[in-house]
Design goal:
The complex is a heterodimer of chains A (about 240) and B (about 400). Chain A has about 240 residues and is of the alpha/beta class. Chain A contains 7 helices and 10 strands. Chain A has helices at about 50-60, 80-90, 105-115, 120-135, 150-165, 180-200, 210; strands spanning about 10-20, 25-35, 40-45, 65-70, 75, 90-95, 170-175, 200-205, 215-220, 225-230. In chain A, strand 9 (about 215-220) and strand 10 form a beta hairpin. The radius of gyration of chain A is 18 Å and the shape is globular. Chain B has helices spanning about 1-15, 15-55, 85-90, 125-130, 145-150, 155-165, 205-215, 235-250, 265-310, 310-320, 325-360, 370-395, 400-405; strands at about 60-65, 80-85, 95-110, 115-125, 135-140, 150-155, 175, 180-185, 200-205, 220-225, 225-230, 260-265. In chain B, helix 2 (about 15-55) packs antiparallel against helix 9 (about 265-310) and helix 11 packs antiparallel against helix 12 (about 370-395). Chain B is elongated and about 105 Å long. The chains are: A alpha/beta (about 240), B alpha+beta (about 400). Chains A and B meet through helix 2 and helix 3 of A and helix 1, helix 10 and helix 13 of B.
């Protein structure tokens, strides 16, 4: 397999056109990137810069119009729907701006949901979900409904859900967009800790520069192209669990 | 995979109870209607079948008189061409099991201060075998009574009830048209005939007594009709041919000439009645099934709304790795559950409603397990059929479109 060379994520000439009534609109115009294992990458850019489109492609939620994408050495750009679903289930974890928890299901059932689709037996599902709920400091809310806990707590439930199937990469799209500054710090501290202690590769999209400060690498998009790609010294996260 | 999905489907249905209730209402009404209609239909069918069974099986009647419509003639049984000799000759045919000659007419029956007017059948002891009619008490008159034209009578239940009340009439003496007859037996209850006559309103006497003593004045020694029982259903066609040939020969009727008797297949008549009842029952069921379809459309409608409402939820599930078939299965399970719930409640209401109909309208009903099982199978199929399109729509949602939905 050409072009793999140990990179966890590698894209070449990745492009996406959206077909609108006015014709084809290029949202992404050819992006080449490599992201190594254990990296913590922040993707920034104004709205319409193509960063969300890029994240959707990385997350196998959408297929590129042109270009290649290797995830962990495997060419996933042209995979059929069923196999893309398996890649999302086994290798990727998602954290969204709006938390995206199932409101009818308890915290533990939300966290365990990816394991349902992975075909893991119930006892193991519950045990693994419980470990992660403890890990994000929400053990006593395991049986609560998401509507009973705060936004910051909901986002931590979402992170636990993203982690439950032991993915290689977590993709977070504006994970702190709906949070106040204090809970933003808490959530970012959790991300930083997961990256540092468990070696989870993190790619997160944000338009807040203080959130991007937690990352070691910042990639800036503009008009569907990468315009900046720099490495920085990350900000020291706050003590976790200060106000859980 | 099914376990947690079933749980989620139940969660989804119980989270909006009013909607679930209203959605299933269509199925409830449909299933209840089907069960009630089938119960009424099979009830009617059963009462027809009971009448047929009470008639006896593989029967022919040979009537005196021609079947032809040309010229002025009396009806079947009005002629005077059949004799006991004919009956005995028919009894000799190989495909015939039993023969019961009949000479009948109305007569006044008196016991003490009670009296009734009923049809008196002169026949032989084979009559009970042909009609498959057991005795409740006493004994049938025998060959010697027939030979000697003995004054012996066997009473039907209705006649016995009128004359004797609850008492056993066996051993008493009644008067038929003024002459004394010893009651030797009491027939078991038979119920209504196909044409609605009370078969128990009857008195049997030896055919010779009827011919010579009761109705002997008009056509001396003749019979109104002969009942013939074939050995088996398969031999009925042969029996009919044999009777025709035999009687034509005995009556000296050459080919091309009109017969002076009529052979009628009673079993065929009965089967027509049975198939009429069956068609009615089928028709009732078919009309009721239309409401099942309407109920199914109601489910489809709500499932479509539900898929739209939960677009974002579907997006989340797909993003974290649900396969299209997982989404399909989830929504399909929900619609099947809805339909089965409707089926269950509908079956209960259907059974209750059938009993109510029986009680209020005094119609015989027959609730069969198979109708209830059928209702369940049909409602599950309705769930699959009408749930398929919405579920497929859900399964085909694009993940980013679904996640963007508000």
């Amino acid at each position: 397999m050409a072009g793999t060379s140990g990179d966890l994520i590698r894209v070449e000439g990745l492009a996406k056109d959206y077909v609108t009534a006015a014709g084809a609109f290029p949202a992404l115009r050819g992006v080449d990137l490599r992201i190594d294992e254990r990296e913590f990458v922040a993707i920034m850019g104004p709205s319409g810069s193509g960063k969300s489109t890029f994240m959707n492609l990385l997350g196998c939620l959408d297929s590129p119009t042109r270009g290649r994408y290797w995830l962990d050495g495997r060419d996933v750009a042209g995979l059929p729907t069923e196999q893309l679903a398996r890649v999302r289930n086994q290798q990727l974890g998602f954290v969204f701006q709006g938390f995206n928890l199932l409101q009818r299901a308890s915290v533990i059932d939300n966290v365990a949901l990816p394991l349902v689709y992975a075909g893991v037996p119930r006892a193991e599902r519950q045990a693994r979900a419980r470990v992660l709920i403890e890990r994000v400091g929400l053990g006593r809310y395991a049986d609560s409904l998401p509507s009973r806990i705060s936004g910051g707590q909901q986002q931590r439930v979402a992170i636990a859900r993203a982690l439950v199937n032991r993915p290689r990469v977590i993709l977070a799209d504006e994970p702190t967009g709906n949070l106040d500054s204090h809970t933003t710090d808490e959530v970012m501290a959790l991300f930083a800790e997961l990256n540092r202690e468990e070696g989870i590769t993190l790619v997160l999209v944000t338009h807040e520069s203080d959130v991007a400060e937690y990352a070691r690498r910042v990639i800036r998009f503009h008009d569907g192209l990468v315009v900046e790609d720099r490495v920085q010294t990350p900000r020291e996260p706050i003590e976790i669990g200060a106000s859980a | 995979m099914i376990g947690p999905m079933l749980f989620e489907a139940m969660q989804a249905l119980s989270s909006n109870r009013l909607r679930t209730f209203l959605t299933t209402l269509g199925m409830v009404i449909g299933v209840a209607a089907v069960i009630i209609m089938l119960a009424v239909g099979s009830g009617a069918q059963k009462s027809v079948q009971d009448s047929i069974a009470s008639m006896g099986s593989n029967l022919f009647i040979v009537l005196a008189g021609s079947p032809s419509t040309s010229g002025v003639r009396g009806g079947g049984g009005s002629g005077s061409t059949l004799t006991l000799g004919d009956a005995d000759a028919i009894a000799e045919l190989p495909s015939v099991k039993a023969v019961a000659p009949q000479a009948f007419g109305n007569a006044q029956i008196v016991y003490g201060s009670y009296n009734t007017n009923t049809q008196v059948f002169g026949t032989t002891d084979d009559y009970l075998e042909v009609r498959e009619w057991p005795l409740a008490s006493g004994a049938m008159f025998g060959d010697s009574d027939v030979r000697s034209a003995g004054r012996v009578a066997v009473l039907g239940q209705t006649v016995a009830q009128t004359l004797f009340g609850p008492e056993d009439p066996v051993g008493r003496t009644i008067r038929i048209n003024g002459s004394p007859y010893l009651v030797s037996g009491l027939l078991a209850r038979k119920g209504q005939s196909l044409d609605g006559r009370d078969q128990d309103d009857t008195v049997l006497v030896p055919v010779t007594a009827a011919q010579r003593k009761l109705f002997g004045s008009r056509f001396h020694g003749t019979l109104r009709m002969i009942m013939v029982q074939s050995v088996s259903e398969d031999l009925m066609a042969r029996t009919e041919l044999e009777i025709n040939a035999l009687l034509n020969e005995r009556h000296g009727i050459r080919a091309g000439q009109e017969s002076d008797f009529t052979v009628r297949n009673l079993t065929a008549v009965a089967e027509t009645a049975a198939s009429t009842a069956r068609i009615m029952s089928l028709l009732l069921g078919a009309i009721a099934s239309i409401s099942l379809v309407v109920g199914g459309i109601g489910i489809m409608n709500i499932m479509l709304v539900s898929v739209t409402e939960r677009t974002r939820e579907i997006g989340i599930r797909v993003a974290i790795g649900a396969q299209p078939r997982d989404v399909l299965l989830q929504f399909l399970l929900e619609s099947i559950l809805l339909a089965l719930l409707g089926g269950l409640v509908g079956a209960l209401i259907g059974v209750g409603g059938s009993l109510l109909v029986q009680h209020l309208a005094q119609i015989p009903i027959l609730i069969s397990t198979s109708a209830i099982v059928l209702a369940f199978v049909v409602s599950a199929s309705v769930g699959v059929f009408f749930g398929w399109y919405p579920a497929r729509k859900a399964a085909r949602l694009e993940p980013i479109e679904a996640l963007r939905y508000h």
